[in-house]
Amino acid sequence: LTSQGLPPVMLRGLASTVSLSSTTSARVDRRARWHAMALATRGQSSDCALGRLYDKCEAVLGVLPADTPATQTEVDAIAPFMDAMTPGDLRITPPTSTGKALGRLLGGGRFVSNRNGISGPSYLPLEYLLLHDSPQFTMGVFSFPKHGFIPLHDHPGMTVVSKLLYGRVRVRSFDWVEAEDGEDDGGGGGGDGEKDTAEKHGSNQPRLARLVADRETQAPTTPLALFPHDANIHTFHAVTACALLDVLHPPYAVGGGRDCHYFTEVECGPNGETCARDEAWLLEIECPDQFIVHRGHYLGPRVGSEAR
Q1: Beta-bridge partner residues of 265
Q2: What does DSSP say about strands 293-295 and 126-133: parallel, antiparallel, or unpaired?
Q3: Nearest Cα to 304, choosing from 87, 128, 45, 75?
Q4: Which end of the chain has fewer CB atoms within 10 angstroms, the N or the C?
Q5: Is the Cα torsion angle 183, 188, 194, 198 positive or negative in sign?
Q6: d(CA 273, CA 9)
Q7: Beta-bridge partner residues of 211
Q8: How far is it, in rounded angstroms, from Cα 206 to Cα 225?
Q9: In this structure, are residues 158 and 231 in contact, taking their beta carbons and an 8 Å threshold?
Q10: What is the pLDDT along the chain (308 residues), one digit of tens a residue?
Q11: At residue 178, what are phi and psi to the nearest 5 degrees?
């Protein structure tokens, strides 16, 4: 259960988890209304760390052209505000070394946890706290139990900035060795050139990727960032219970060229090819049935779309 005895909302797939406006039609309908509301409320939430982060994201990311991913310049602008965030700013208390729960919210709430240990490829349920959701950008927190993980997935045409709030996590990131037709250097949004990966291949075959990073990081640490063609495919494995604050720009857009694709590593390429030690053959798969994320009940400061 989430806080106040409310049953958790169970979601399948990252696109539906991080954004309620992830479909193309919802994204278009909300853009004009959200822009007007953001202009009217800008600067009103800056009395807390989350409010200052939101205001900076709105000022930097909210003015970019539609479907244009943030560049290093925009990431550098919001990174200090991400870096300043702590669990306490969101009213999240990290679990103790002997605690069984994933984490606890001040005020009596708690994160969903699984008492059973991980076994083989089994997934432990995660929890997502929605902080802000708009057609320009989304903000939220993924909370992991020890040994929990997010499967290998991509962020087509997107930039993501992540801040590890507490705990220790292993991050593995890949980039495609060769770009496919329709993948431009800027990432971009929808259009005929941004079709689903399997459709672009004609048949689903392994594709060669280069290992960009494979490391463990411990909080406190500086924010991480990925771009359309830099560490865009990644997976997180929780070494300890941990939580990640994410800002996505632009958000996922199912049907608009920014759906989430999932992958698994296979031994050989489509014709039996092997690969170098710093490479891997990745095969697209459906979102694993066992991968479940619960939408949590957030008790911290409210900004943007979640302001009351």
Answers
A1: 282
A2: parallel
A3: 45
A4: C
A5: positive
A6: 43
A7: 174
A8: 26
A9: no
A10: 233 333 445 555 677 666 655 444 444 444 444 444 444 444 445 689 999 999 999 999 999 998 899 999 999 999 999 999 999 999 998 987 544 444 443 333 333 333 333 233 478 899 999 999 999 999 999 999 999 999 999 999 999 999 999 999 999 999 999 876 555 544 333 433 344 444 444 458 999 999 999 999 999 999 999 999 999 999 999 999 999 999 999 988 888 788 899 999 999 999 999 999 999 999 999 999 889 999 988 999 999 999 86
A11: -125, 135
Q: Closest by alpha carbon to 140, among 90, 189, 91, 103? A: 90
Closest Cα partner for 175 from 105, 228, 119, 114? 228
100-107 long-range contacts (CB < 8 A, ≥24 apart) are 102/127, 102/143, 102/144, 102/145, 102/148, 102/241, 103/143, 103/166, 103/241, 103/243, 105/3, 105/297, 105/298, 105/299, 105/300, 106/299, 107/3, 107/299
Nearest of 246, 291, 307 to residue 19 by alpha carbon: 246
2 backbone dihedrals φ, ψ, rounded to 5°: -85, -175
Predicted TM-score (pTM) of this structure: 0.77
> In terms of DSSP H, where are the helices of 90-240?
197-201
Residue closest to 134 by CA, chosen among 238, 39, 257 = 39
d(CA 266, CA 152): 12
Match 């406190």 to its residue by tokens.
Answer: 220
The sign of the CA dihedral 47, 52, 56, 58 is: negative
Q: Is the peptide bond before 220 cis (omega within 30 degrees of 0)?
A: yes
CA distance to 113, 129, 140, 297, per residue, from 302 (Å): 24, 11, 12, 12
Residue 220 identity (one-letter amino acid): P
Distance of alpha carbon 76 from alpha carbon 225, whole angstroms:
10
